[in-house]
Amino acid sequence: MLYRRSLLAVLALAPLALSGPAAAETVPFTPEAFAAAQKAGKPILIEVSAPWCPICKTQKPILAKLAEQPRFKDLVIFDVDFDTRKDVLRQFNARMQSTLIAFKGETETGRSVGETQPEWIEGLVEKTL
């Protein structure tokens, strides 16, 4: 009986042990969440995108693939909608959709506009570490 309970407990916890490190998280931009991530010294990527933008649609799977990598597990990706968040665009001086802005804590470490080369986007994201 004890063996059966132990076996059930191990089987119940196995998915947690096998899941590996958590992926980077993508969240909608809020000033409070951004300030908290900066204060915590987190690696941050601002992603300015629009649903109608073909370049943005190309960037999203690249960013999703990078977010799965263990070295980017602490990365916070803030999604900024180009059409509705003009206040945030002014704050970051972002004039176009498909803009990516990298931060290491409170310091901006780089930005790109319209980039679709996976290795170049990865290089930008690496600057957040």
Keywords:
alpha/beta, Glutaredoxin, 43% helix
Short description:
The protein has 129 residues and is α/β, with parallel strands linked by helices.
Q: Give the CATH class.
A: Alpha Beta
CATH topology name: Glutaredoxin
The CA-CA distance between the termini, in Å, is: 50 Å
By DSSP (H or I, 4+ residues per run), the number of helices equals 5
Helix content: 40-55%
Based on the coordinates given, report the CATH architecture: 3-Layer(aba) Sandwich
Q: How is the largest sheet built, in terms of strand order?
A: 1-3-2-4-5
Total number of strands: 5
Instruction: Provide mean pLDDT, rounded.
Output: 86
Q: Can you tell me the overall shape?
A: globular
The main β sheet shows up as:
5 strands, mixed
Runs in which pLDDT lies below 50 for 5 or more consecutive residues are 1-21
**Proportion of residues in β-strands:** 15-25%
Class computed from helices, strands and strand pairing = alpha/beta
Describe this structure in words.
The protein is of the alpha/beta class and 129 residues long. It has one domain: Glutaredoxin (3-Layer(aba) Sandwich), CATH 3.40.30.10. It is built from 5 helices and 5 strands. The protein has a 5-stranded mixed beta sheet, with helices on both faces. It starts with a helix and ends with a helix. The model is unreliable at 1-21 (pLDDT under 50).
